[in-house]
Amino acid sequence: MARLISYNGLIAFLFLIVVVLPSTAQQISGLVQVNMVRADDHTPWLDKGTGIVAYQDDSVNLQQGVLRITDKLSSAFSYDVTANIYQLGEQHIGITQAAIQYKPLSNSQVRFKGRAGFFYPRLSLENVDLGWLSPYTYTQSAVNSWFGEELRIAGLEGTLFSAGRNRRSPFSWEITAGAFKGNDTLGTLLSWRGFAMHDRQSLHNDKIVFADYPTVNDPNGIFHPSYVEPFHELDSRVGFYLGAHLSYYKRTQLRYYFYDNQAKPTVVNHQRLYAWRTKFHSVAFSHDVTPTTRFISQWLSGSSHMGQRFVYIDFDAWYMMVSHKRGAHRLSVRYDDFKVKEDDIIPEDMNNSSGQGLTIAWRYKLNANWQVGLEQHINRNQADIRTTLDEAAKQNQQQTLAVVQFRWR
């Protein structure tokens, strides 16, 4: 059974919504999702198990609580802050994004915008809803589930962009670059747990636990704790990413990103958390086949390593999704494929993992505030490291969600 949110945390969240924020912000939006779950009895990594979906057994849960505050500071500057509340995980309430944005007024065909703070690069065409959620499914793709867990930018981003309408062209484009610190442990979860599929985003100062694998914990071996704090700065190096967006009208979108955290993999802190040198390519594509049917896909490929090649992995993941909207109904079907392959010097620490997943979701908008939905997710996955806990490497998992959502603005 999932652990309960602390009473004090819930009271603080409600106080923030009802009392403080209406007097200080011009635009406030948010949502609450409550689910009823039917799932396999396979303990998730969030409870120090080896399952790759968020829930087990049959239960009722607070799935999401999102609060977003935006306001203009001037004609060019604005701020955007998102807070989340979760029932699952070590930390239950906190900030997931907070940024100051700069976008001056201009009549130029090529313009500039920028932002600074704690935020996601715009890698995803799946997670485009309020609070970096997906409007299509409740269980997100393996690619974007991992981004939500371990990836956030604490830094600066600058973008040159040109809208097609200003050039009487069907094509719009953007070129973006970012520099950051504080993402040095990126790659920890992929290496030891592998990809997972869920919708929980790590909060600022969060701790993500995983199973007590003996090869990881061994004082005479790697000697790493069974958790990661994903937004640590360990080596004072500056990471970077580069991106390019191209869109044809608003019908077709293509996004490419290259990310490199530039971490020094031999650096370790007092908690025994290592810096992981992680870099990857990401390509996301979206096309409106008809005004009501959309195709979305993303491909991720990269590598990560720590220590003197104590752990070295190559990882690849991709998904394809079709989503059809008819009136107040939306039906989405997504197929995921993911794998992690090791090539390091400690063969006892087995980091190979792989899997495939199928997600089918129906969402129905009752009115401007209320939505209901059903989702069926099934996957088959393999993680060799499970055998160190005397578990089978291969697992088949399924999860059924019935979700009620209330949203404002």
UniProtKB/TrEMBL annotation:
Protein name: Phosphate-selective porin O and P
Biological classification of the source: Bacteria, Pseudomonadati, Pseudomonadota, Gammaproteobacteria, Alteromonadales
